[in-house]
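S1.2 Input.
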Amino acid sequence: MSIDQDLVARRWAAADADAERVLAHEQRLLRVTPWTRWSLGLGLVALLIAVVGLFLLPRGEDDGAHFTIAMVLATAAIASVIVRAVVTTRSRRDVGTAFPTVTTALSARERHAIARAVRGRVRAPQDRLRIVRAVAVLRAAPDQVERLIWYSAFWFALALGSSTAAPLGGALYCVAAVFSAGAAVYAWFDVARVRRALRTSPAPWDVSVPAASA
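S1.3 Output.
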């Protein structure tokens, strides 16, 4: 075996070892906990309040009400993101892998191939199925949707609390909020799609499943 082939084999072996550890915790990683449900619900409420306040709460010379509401919502968003970061750190320690990815050791081209398999664009060979499934499990975790919703609520809160004397800052906050909201919607549908794929037997990326005709 050449040096290049040995390096490739070592990369895939490292990814496979990480995948095995992730799949050992598959059910726990995919479980939607009560905290996640509460956080998602509160994040959506905070987002709604920020959007309604931004567009419907009348502005005058005194922006005190806007600022107070914005600071409460921004504080809630920061607290939620911190709690999620702590939970994610604990999960990483429990799984004992390069969470939240199992493809760190792979080359960019190899990571792209795994990502395409998770999206159902290509079929994965039999010896790569475990890695693809592990990547899909991490991608299907609901925490990324939760995090993006709170990011969007945070940026909308800053837009709400921005002064009328500095409209450019408020506009920039609105742009960031819209992008975050769009990313949250995309992540929501992506998580739902990957979860459906994980429940399918055999999985869409399995080489034994015939590819759909164009």
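S1.4 Remarks. The chain is about 75% helix and 0% strand.
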